[in-house]
Amino acid sequence: MARRRSGTRSTQRRTSSKASRQVGYAVVGLGHFAQESILPAFTHARGNSRLVALVSGDPRKARALGTKYKVPVFGYEQFEECLALPEVDAVYIALPNSMHAEYAVRAARAGAHVLCEKPLATTEDECREMIRACAENDVRLMTAYRLHFEQANLQAVKAVREGKLGEVKLFTSTFSFQLRTPNIRAEADKGGGVLWDIGVYCVNAARYLFRAEPIEVFAFCDWSGDPRFLETEEAASVVMRFPEGKLAAFNVSFGAEAVATYRLVGTEGELHLENAYEVKGPIHWTLKRQGKTRRGKAPSRDQLAPELITFSDCILEGREPEPDGWEGLADVRIISALYESAVSRRPVQLEPLMRTRRPTPDQEQRHPPTRTPELVLVQAPSH
């Protein structure tokens, strides 16, 4: 496998071991999610992916995890030094939202492929800068939407495509938990806020279930006076209008009981998912159609390994991933409009956006759940 080393504007290409057919990743950012879900996923993705470096702003955390995973570690100020390693073909960016664009662009300019957590960035301009940098430097960009590979959500997509609900009309969702602070999710300068952190799941789900883009949105944001939320909103309530009479509504909160559910209603049936967005635990579903009710569950699985495997395949085979950078931008522009609506207290219309690529059932991958490893200097975001 080869990639361009464009950080020095050189056209020389360097090749890693073709025999192994493995893409070497540097994981950038070692917070709770990276430690609990991303790093353990390399076990199931080892067929074409391997962890080769870690980057962190905390030297103690980096040293401990570097020893555990037997890989070199770097500080943020050493990022280019990390990218210069012959083993580093790609980066997985798991930094605070406000840092995604900077590190993605720096990686792309050094010739590294970029897998970036959602939201892709915190402005549409930043997303476009990331997309442009990756295109100009001949590297791939993928937005880390793990549910695009998850069984229950893809079966919901299949139910819509096969007309099992008739014509889908309504999407409703609730996603909430009690946020433990201090936490970057409640820090404005880190790109925090409930819409950025968990609202993005609801926006993305509505889009891939409706197979369409919203044309108008409206949002209320609530600051309750809770001392945890001095810089960002605690909760938000959203309505999105799609073409052909489709409506989506959702509520998200950092100050309520843990709930992760959505309901899709069509002219001939309805589908309800519980635990729909969670990274761990089974996802329960209920399908009601023609007076009959069916229930089932998708068992808990490793949701991060499919991202790594898919992205590595795209790198090795020279093809664009789904979800790509444009998929990340589509959600960022909607969330930006929702914040604009919350401030203006008016609906915001969206310019038409053409998206022909959507997640499909054949993207599903099944891997057993990973065990939660011993975590280093981090705490879970919720109690």
Automatic annotation (TrEMBL):
One of the entry's Gene Ontology molecular-function terms is: nucleotide binding
Q: Which family does it belong to?
A: Belongs to the Gfo/Idh/MocA family.
One short Pfam name that applies is: GFO_IDH_MocA
Ranges of Basic residues compositional bias? 1-16
Instruction: For this UniProt record, give its keywords in alphabetical order, as a comma-separated list.
Output: Oxidoreductase
Question: Domain GFO/IDH/MocA-like oxidoreductase, which positions?
Answer: 155-271
Domain of life of the source? Bacteria
List residues of the Gfo/Idh/MocA-like oxidoreductase N-terminal domain: 24-144
Q: Which InterPro entries match?
A: Gfo/Idh/MocA-like_OxRdtase_N, Gfo/Idh/MocA_domain, GFO_IDH_MocA-like_dom, Glc-Fru_OxRdtase_bac, NAD(P)-bd_dom_sf
Protein name listed in UniProt: Glucose-fructose oxidoreductase
Residue ranges for the region (Disordered) are: 1-20, 350-383
